[in-house]
Design goal:
By secondary structure, this protein is an all-alpha fold. The protein has helices spanning 2-6, 10-13, 24-55, 65-79. Helix content is 68%, strand content 0%. Helix 3 (24-55) packs antiparallel against helix 4 (65-79). The model has no long low-confidence stretch (mean pLDDT 81).
Length: 82
């Protein structure tokens, strides 16, 4: 996600073109869409792991910090690009 969003210049995203045209900006928009889909999938996956492993079984709070880290890491990574 970090590398995918960072390599596309913002000038390519601001042009008015069709997504399926032969222009580079259409391909770059599709690439950014795929990168954000993967990023938000990481957020949903981290949420699922935290709930399934650390909240439902009532894990003591001192052992639940890995679940919190798994949850917040993709949020902070994706928040940088929004």
């Amino acid at each position: 996600m970090l590398f995918s969003v960072g390599i596309v210049p913002s000038e390519l995203l601001s042009r008015e073109t069709n997504l399926f045209s032969e222009d580079v900006s259409g391909c770059s928009r599709a690439f950014i869409l795929l990168a954000f889909m993967l990023g938000f999938g990481g957020i949903f996956g981290g949420t699922w792991i935290m709930i399934e492993r650390y909240i439902i079984p009532q894990v003591p709070s001192e052992e639940a910090w890995p679940g919190v880290a798994i949850f917040f890491q993709p949020i902070l990574i994706n928040g940088r690009y929004l």
